[in-house]
UniProtKB/TrEMBL annotation:
Gene3D superfamilies in alphabetical order: Phosphorylase Kinase, domain 1, Tetratricopeptide repeat domain, Transferase(Phosphotransferase) domain 1
Protein name: non-specific serine/threonine protein kinase
Protein species of origin: Erythroxylum novogranatense
Residue intervals of the Protein kinase domain: 59-325
EC numbers on record: 2.7.11.1
C-alpha cells in the first residue's frame, strides 16, 4: 500500500529558471538526498500516534481551529525519533473511511522539498488522522504578524513567495492544482528556516469528501458566486499572501487594489522594510499581486508564470534562510550538560548517580487518580513496592529494582515518569535495551517535555546500535533541558 518515493519527481526546479547548470544539478542532488530520507506513505495505528503525541497531550498542540471545527494539530515523535505533525479531524469530517484513505494516499504520493510532506494517515473506527513532516519553526503568520525578536526581512519575504509559487507549480504538475484555505498559517518553516507549504491543505475538506471549501477572510469573487474553489481561486489567495508579505498585516484585497489604482503603494508597504528594497522591486511585487487579484479568474497568472516573475526579484540568495530569519543553525553542535555528556559516553554509573540525586521532584503534576478504597486496600502495598524498588535502585540491585517497579506500575493506581525512568536505566544496565527504550517512551508519554525521558531514549538507542536516532534523541534532550533551565 505505500508509494515508492524514489520513483517520484523530487524537484520542481526548471533549469531555465536558474543560472549555471552545475549549480542546478547540485541543488537537485541535495534535494533528492533529502527526499530519499522520507519514508513511503503508510497507515499508522491510533495507538502508535497516541504514544507519539503523549496521548494527544495539550502540551503538544501546535494549532487548532476552534470548537466549531476542532481539527487539532499535534506535534509528536515516533519511536525512531522522527518528528511528526498529526492532524486529528473531528468525527464528522470524513464519515466515509474509504474516501479518506484514497484521498490521503494520493496526497501522500507527493514528495517535494517545498512541501511539508504527508507521511501517512490513520483510519480506525471514527478516528481520522493525517501524519506529516514536523516543521519546527512556526508559521508565516507567527513570523509576519506576531513577531517578537525581529520583523521578517524583505529578502526572506521574497523567498517565501518564490517557495510557495514553486510548491504550487509542483502540485499543479502532479494534478493537485486545488488547495484548501491557502493563508499565512498554511506556510510553515523547517528547522533550517526554509518556508514550506503544508500538505494538509491539499486534502479535500468536506463531509462528502469530494469538494473543497474555504475559511479565508478574503474569498475569491467566484467562490462567493459558486461556493467552489478552482485553481484560479488558489492564485487569488496567493495574491492575498503577497499583500501580507508586502504589508506585514491583513489588508482586504479591495482596499489594496484601490491603493494600487491611486498609486499609493507606500500605504501598502510595511514600515519595517524601509530601505531594504528598491522602488522597482516593490512596484513589481505589487503588480504581480494585482494580477493575482483580478476579478475574472482567467486573467490571473498560473503557478509557472508566478515562479518566472519571482525569480528575478530574489536577493541575498547565498544567505541561508536561518540567518535571514534570525534562528539558530541546526548544524551547530548543541552544548551538552553533565547528564547529556554521560548519555553520550554511555556512562551508566554517572547517569545512575544523577537520577538518584534528582529523586522524584519531576513527578509533580503527574496524573494520579486514587479512590478511597485504593487508599485503604491497595495503597500501602503499592507504596511499599515503590519504596523497595527505590532501595534496590540505590544499591544497583537491578533485578530487584525491575521487579519492584514492575509491581508498582502494574497496579496502575499511580502514574510516575520517574519510576519508568528508573526502570529504564535498570533495563539498560541489565543489557535489555529494547525494554529500556519502551520505558523511556512511556516516561515521555506521561511528561511530554521531560528531558530525562529523551536522554534515556538516546542511551537505549545507542545500546541498540541506532546511532542517528540516538543522536536525535540526545539533541532533543539537550534542547528540553536548556529550555527548562531558562524557565526556572
Amino acid at each position: 500500500m505505500g508509494c515508492e518515493c524514489s520513483k517520484l519527481s523530487s524537484c520542481c526546479w526548471d533549469p531555465q529558471y536558474n543560472g549555471a547548470a552545475p549549480e542546478v544539478v547540485n541543488e537537485e542532488n541535495e534535494d533528492k538526498s533529502e527526499l530519499d530520507d522520507l519514508p513511503a506513505f503508510r497507515e499508522y495505528s491510533i495507538e502508535t500516534l497516541r504514544m507519539a503525541t503523549s496521548g494527544f497531550a495539550v502540551e503538544n498542540i501546535v494549532s487548532e481551529h476552534g470548537e466549531k471545527a476542532p481539527n487539532v494539530v499535534y506535534k509528536g515523535k515516533l519511536e525512531n525519533q522522527r518528528r511528526i505533525a498529526v492532524k486529528r479531524f473531528n468525527r464528522s469530517a470524513w464519515p466515509d473511511a474509504r474516501q479518506f484513505l484514497e484521498e490521503a494516499r494520493v496526497v501522500g504520493q507527493l514528495r517535494n522539498q517545498r512541501l511539508s510532506n504527508l507521511l501517512g494517515c490513520c483510519c480506525e473506527g471514527d478516528d481520522r488522522l493525517l501524519v506529516a513532516e514536523f516543521m519546527s519553526n512556526d508559521t508565516l503568520a507567527k513570523h509576519l504578524f506576531h513577531w517578537e525578536a525581529q520583523p521578517m526581512k524583505w529578502a526572506m519575504r521574497l523567498r517565501v513567495a518564490l517557495h510557495l509559487a514553486q510548491a504550487l507549480e509542483y502540485c499543479t504538475g502532479k494534478g493537485r492544482a486545488l488547495y484548501h484555505d491557502l493563508n499565512a498559517y498554511r506556510i510553515v518553516f523547517d528547522e533550517e528556516g526554509n518556508p514550506r507549504l503544508s500538505c494538509f491543505g491539499l486534502m479535500k475538506n468536506s463531509r462528502d469528501g469530494k469538494s473543497y471549501s474555504t475559511n479565508l477572510a478574503f474569498t475569491p469573487p467566484e467562490y462567493l458566486r459558486t461556493g467552489r474553489v478552482t485553481p484560479e481561486s488558489v492564485i487569488y489567495s496567493f495574491g492575498t499572501l503577497l499583500l501580507d508579505l508586502l504589508s506585514g498585516k491583513h489588508i482586504p484585497p479591495s482596499h489594496a487594489l484601490d491603493l494600487i489604482r491611486d498609486r499609493n503603494i507606500q500605504m501598502l508597504t510595511d514600515s519595517c522594510l524601509e530601505g531594504q528594497f528598491t522602488n522597482d522591486d516593490g512596484t513589481e511585487l505589487v503588480r504581480l499581486a494585482s494580477r493575482c487579484l483580478q476579478y475574472e479568474p482567467r486573467e490571473r497568472p498560473n503557478p509557472k508564470s508566478l515562479v518566472t516573475a519571482l525569480i528575478p526579484l530574489q536577493n541575498d540568495t547565498e544567505v541561508p534562510s536561518h540567518v535571514l530569519m534570525g534562528i539558530p543553525d541546526v548544524a551547530e553542535a548543541v552544548p551538552l550538560s553533565p547528564l547529556g555528556e554521560a548519555c553520550f559516553r554511555m556512562d551508566l554509573t554517572a547517569i545512575h548517580e544523577i537520577l538518584e540525586k534528582i529523586g522524584y521532584k519531576d513527578d509533580e503534576g503527574a496524573a494520579t487518580e486514587l479512590s478511597f478504597q485504593m487508599w485503604t486496600n491497595q495503597m500501602q502495598e503499592t507504596l511499599n513496592s515503590k519504596k523497595k524498588g527505590d532501595i534496590a535502585f540505590r544499591h544497583k540491585d537491578l533485578r530487584a529494582a525491575i521487579e519492584c517497579y514492575s509491581q508498582f506500575i502494574d497496579v496502575g493506581t499511580m502514574v510516575s515518569p520517574t519510576v519508568f525512568a528508573r526502570r529504564s536505566l535498570s533495563y539498560i544496565m541489565s543489557d535489555m535495551p529494547q525494554e529500556a527504550l519502551n520505558d523511556a517512551l512511556q516516561a515521555q508519554a506521561i511528561s511530554p517535555l521531560w528531558d530525562i525521558a529523551s536522554y534515556l531514549q538516546a542511551v537505549s538507542l545507542f545500546a541498540l546500535g541506532r546511532e542517528s536516532e540516538a543522536q536525535a534523541a540526545l539533541k532533543e534532550g539537550s534542547t528540553l533541558e536548556s529550555k527548562r533551565s531558562t524557565n526556572l
